[in-house]
Amino acid sequence: MIDAKTKLFSVIGDPIGHSLSPIMHNAVFKGLDLNCAYVAFKVGEAELANAIGGFRALGIGGFNVTTPHKIRVIEFLDEVSEEVELIGACNTVKNDGGELVGYNTDGMGALEALKKTTKVEGKGVLVLGAGGASRAICFQLALEKVGRLTIANRTLGKAEQLAKEISEKTGCNANSSNVSEDGLKGEISEVEMMINTTSVGMHPNIDETLVTSDMMDEHLVVMDIVYNPLETRLLKEAKKAGAKTVDGLGMFVYQGAEALRIWLGIEPPIGLMRGAVLRKLQKIDSKF
Ligand code: ATR
Questions:
Q1: What angle in degrees, to the nearest 10, is found between the helix axes of 106-115 and 249-264?
Q2: Whose CA is nearest to atom 25 of ligand 1?
Q3: pLDDT in tens, 250-263
Q4: pTM, rounded to two decimals
Q5: Largest alpha-carbon pair distance within the chain?
């Protein structure tokens, strides 16, 4: 029950109406009988400073940050963790006695999900996309000592810039590519893993994919960070090619679990979190 002592958590972004974070975190608060609540706020670029000032004034416990604020939010924080310093993007903020401290749990969440299926150290990885989520995942892959990292992006300049930054800061062998069919086919034949961090294939554009089955084979592990729908067109194509697949639910749950550890110091109930998100996704799916 919400009362005068309820500790508030939030997610800010734009768009935000389809976020499943409130469902997942409120399920934890209910399941563990914690006097906390989690709400989503649609905050556009022009309102970011005011929103964070409001959070300070209200003494909110912490908040998540999503598109398009993951990079710019840093300038409004009092302190950032080592990984935020490195990655240059933040998705989790804790109010630590009035000080807003930024963390990034995206990369760790993605790697935790991926490592359930495959070892990453020494492997060749192709990452599609060079936005905020890609930054976190690519840096984490570099820290986990992948053998070779290729970043492919529609806007090639962004992939080049990110690859350069990663090589310089971590010493990882990182390079870039475009997302043309021929370019990607060549890159895929050189790697053991591919991760889609773009929004291609996300509801409502569920028939879209950057890669089709004829470009993949059974040696590949394919992960998609899109979790709505759970089985994206890319994952369907990967299965058709005989590749192993990792859907986006694991990353979503693990990044949220890490945020709960940071905010509340609790050991998060992973199964409960996964179940809450899965039930909601199945309800959404049955509407289409
Ligand atoms: P996020 O925080 O989720 O990573 P983002 O920073 O806006 O979101 O990044 C979105 C990524 O998806 C980018 O790499 C974007 O490519 P551009 O840098 O060229 O914009 C990629 N993306 C989005 N829609 C795409 C599409 N239709 N085809 C190819 N790439 C796309």
A1: 130
A2: 200
A3: 999 999 999 999 99
A4: 0.94
A5: 60
